[in-house]
Structures are given as C-alpha cells and as structure tokens.
Amino acid sequence: MATTQDLSRGMFLRYNGQLCQVIDYQHTMPGKGGAFYQVKMKNAITGKSIENRFRSGENIDDVRIDQVEMQYLYKDGSNLMLMNTETYEQVAVAESMLGDQMKFIKEEMLLNVYFDDGNPIMADAPNHVVLEITYSEPGVKGDTANNPLKPATLETGAVVNVPLFVESGEKIKVDTRTGEYVERAK
Questions:
Q1: pLDDT higher for 22 or 99?
Q2: Residue 45 pLDDT > 90
C-alpha cells in the first residue's frame, strides 16, 4: 500500500473499485484543519474524469501497470490486432481505447498498450505521426494574410488543416493528441 505522499502524475491507482490514472494533483495546507491532496484522475477504462480529496498520509491502492510497445497489424471488426514486437504474441484491443487518435493510425505503426494482470486496459498512439497527403486543393497565390489554412485529406482518411504551401503527395507530421498539423516531414 502506498500513501498520498507517493502520488505522481501518470500513476495508476484503484479508487472505488475502478482503475484510474492520476492526471494532476495538488497538495494544500489550509490555515485550519489538516493538509490534503486534491487529485484529478481519469478512469482507465471509460475515460471519465474524477476528482477526489485525500487526507495527507492516507493510504491509496496503487496498481502496477505494464506498458508494452506493440505493432498494429490489422483491424478485425471493432478490434485492432496488435503484436508484441519482442515475443510476437498477438492481442486484440478494442478500437475505442484509442478514441480520436484512431484517425491517424495506419498498419505497422507502434502503439503503447497498458496491461493490468495481462488484460489490455489502455492504448496510446505516438504523439506525432508522419502521414502522406492524398488530396488537397491548390493554394491561392498571394493569399498570405493571417496565416490561412486549407483542408487536406491524409492517407488514413483523416482531414487536417494545413498551410497553403503544402501540396498533395507531401508527407506531413501530425500531432495525434490534437489532430493538428505540426510541420512538413523531411
């Protein structure tokens, strides 16, 4: 058993029987009463946000989660088939675990999968991916005021806004967390 002094961002703990990941926490010592930790957590399964106040020194149920880098092989219905790159073991993971990041995933990409007692509970795409633009309208020459953007369709089918100078066939770097254009890939 750990105590509230062991809290850290990204840590997994069991709260009310549910597996949660600590997003943020703040230690507060008010003038009256005892010190406490205000903790923001995310349910690892459903993704819902939870906030709770723990007394300073209170026991918390920390959980050891294994993070494994796995390669995305193919989609099977609503599941993704992933392979452990070290043991070649294959695991089916629900597509919903990736949420909006799924728009930027293509076969053979490496994903981080989190396991609790051998069961996949969360999956994360890399923060940045390089994808090719399959379609984009040509930019209008001279229209450079206010940093104009235009929509571009990527090889995965996702649409992102890119600067006017980016053309079809070019590869760009996209932030999977926000879905925004970062830069042209070299």
A1: 22
A2: no
Express as a percent the part of the chain with pLDDT over 90: 33
List domains and CATH numbers for the chain.
2-62 (2.30.30.30), 66-124 (2.40.50.140), 128-184 (2.40.50.140)
Question: How far is CA 127 from each of CA 16, 17, 110, 131, rounded to the nearest angstrom?
Answer: 31, 30, 11, 13
* Each residue's pLDDT tens digit, 69-79: 999 999 888 89
Token readout for 7 is: 């809290």
Structure pTM?
0.72
- From residue 150, how far is each of 27, 94, 118, 153 by CA, in Å? 45, 33, 44, 10
